[in-house]
Amino acid sequence: MSFQGVMTAIVTPFRDGAVDENALRALIEWQIKSGVDAVVPCGTTGESATVTYEEHEKVIRVAVEQSAGRVPVIAGAGSNSTANAVKLAKQAKKAGADGHLQVTPYYNKPTQEGLYQHFKAIAAVVDLPMVLYNVPGRTSVNMLPETVARLSSIDNIVAIKEASGDMEQIKRIVAETGPVFSVYSGDDALNLEIYKAGGKGAVSVTSNVAPSHVADVWDRFSAGDVDAAQKIQSGLASLNKAMFIETNPIPAKTALSLMGKCREEFRLPMTPMSEDHKEELRKVLSQYKLLP
């Protein structure tokens, strides 16, 4: 299976220390009705680093149930331990996910060969479409185009979410992997630029708060109306910037709380947004008419 379009890296709402299932279901329903093409639970934006295995399974299961086949669910299942990544990927498949997102192992900084062997090992034992995830700003390791090209020859490795911010690298990946493999934007500010370079979608943070706007960029672009897509993309600049005024997902979840869609609740070491930044965020949301 291949995926394309706008895929929301959805937040995990909490209430009194537990996953807020009702809020999660409502968020997913709103996302689908707003025109997104897939949901991606338990990624960076979903605070995957601080949910338990049991909560991880619950969030994916709820996403699958609520989506009900209307859009694919691509479950975050990455780890810096290959064995744990296999466990999470198997769990995602059992829960009914359509694919899994595998981040480059963080902290232990594997070599390019280590990256190749890590993803190859997961693909060998979990028969589910895999989306690679390169985000060196989070992991301290950058997966090079030649490594991605090697991995793209493995049948169930179908795509990469590229969040290096390096357009030359992204263009090389597109050129070296061929038409069957998909490249997705992992940086909302670069979505349209990556589409123009041959990208087939975006795994978006901004679509948490403005799903129809972000989806519209892809829809206009894929329909051939690049000028309209550019106008919408340019218009989203302030909102895209606001989503990273503090560490993701603090701005996205804070924005959703201001919009009345979930609680402003995080798990340590993530903390609530500073009052100065919250006021700045409120002004941006007001500018986009996103506040109730």
Sum up the structure in keywords.
292 residues; 10 strands; globular; 3-stranded parallel β-sheet; single chain; 5-stranded parallel β-sheet; TIM Barrel; alpha/beta
Summarize the structure.
With 292 residues, the protein is an alpha/beta fold.
Description:
The chain has about 290 residues and is an alpha/beta fold. It has a single domain, classed as Alpha-Beta Barrel (TIM Barrel), CATH 3.20.20. Helices cover about 45% and strands about 15% of the residues. The protein is built from 13 helices and ten strands. The strands form three sheets. It has a five-stranded parallel sheet with strand order 5-6-7-8-9. A three-stranded parallel sheet has the order 4-1-10. The chain has a two-stranded antiparallel ribbon with strand order 2-3. Strand 2 and strand 3 form a beta hairpin. It starts with a strand and ends in a 5-residue tail after the last helix. The model has no long low-confidence stretch (mean pLDDT about 95).
What is the total number of structural domains?
A: 1
Q: What is the count of DSSP helices, taking H or I runs of 4+ residues?
A: 13
List how many beta strands DSSP finds. 10
Q: What are the segments in which pLDDT stays under 50 over at least 5 consecutive residues?
A: none
Classified in CATH, the superfamily is Aldolase class I
The outline comes out as: globular
- CATH architecture descriptor text: Alpha-Beta Barrel
Approximately how much beta-strand content do the residues carry? 5-15%
Mean pLDDT: 97
**What is the succession of H and E elements?**
EEEHEHEHEHEHHEHEHEHHHHH
Helix content: 40-55%
Largest sheet: 5 strands, parallel
Structural class: alpha/beta
CATH T-level fold name: TIM Barrel
Round the Cα radius of gyration to an integer and report it: 18 Å
Span of the ends, CA to CA: 38 Å
Q: At the first level of CATH, what is the class?
A: Alpha Beta
Give, in spatial order, the strands making up the sheet with the most strands.
5-6-7-8-9
